[in-house]
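notes to self, project folder thing:

trying the whole complex as one job this time. last attempt i did each chain seperately and stitching them together was a nightmare. two parts in total, labels are on each line so i dont mix them up again. if this works i'll redo the older ones the same way
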Amino acid sequence: MTSTETETDRLTTVQVYRVYIRATPERVWEAITSSEWTERYGYGGGVDYDLRPGGQFQALASPELKRFGAPDVMCDGEVLEADPPRKLVQTWRLLMDPAVAAEGFTRLTYEIEPQGGGITRLTVSHDLAGAPKLALLTGGLTEGEGGAGGWPWVLSGLKTLLETGETMVVGDA
Amino acid sequence: MSDDDRVFKALADPTRRLLLDRLFARDGRTLTELESDLEMTRFGVMKHLRVLEDAGLVVTRRSGREKLHFLNPVPIRLIHDRWIDKYTERQVTALTDLKRELEADA
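result (full assembly):
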């Protein structure tokens, strides 16, 4: 590997996503950490969070994804820091595909900041060091080739759900 | 100005689109890296980055003494979900289905 490629790897391991949502920080926190909400946006499965350092995290496959052969547990990881409703740091591994799962755990940080006027700013930083295959999925770059829209799609759905109470339906309406 | 207005305004300038393309190619850059081989003063580049940041298309993070710029694609996704899909999805789907069928036969 040349030095240029090494530098590129270093600079591209973190992905940062930010969205402004008309909702309280508490609601945004719940939308991330409780199944009641996670079943209604993104990949539509429940989550199991033990919200303390060292606690277990699992994201479960929705019934629909299971019909397509997804494993019961889609993602797993460990909670590193939980400061409701402001900050959640955890490890995160996608189990759906063996090649991606083999890349191991990545580090995910949610920062939830009230902006005044009933607006909350959610910033998701995903450090994908050593996980180039996963980085393509989370970046939404495989959309339309069997992949979904990654974080931009998940966060767009989260915003729609919290602001309208409706699940975002794209395309097949 | 609404959020959508800010994004459309930010995207309406070729230099700002170029800055986004450069971040897409390699994310997490400093101002110094971004201004290199641009025919523009440092101040000019800063001004453009500020517009992109106000539109939410660029997010900055501190890393030690450096300020790194990250491309945030979420506002473009929101516009896609809000506008583009509504008007184009059915036609585009029909065309991509046709393309797939024709190519399968070939």
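what i see at first glance: The mean pLDDT of chain B is 87.
need to look closer tmrw
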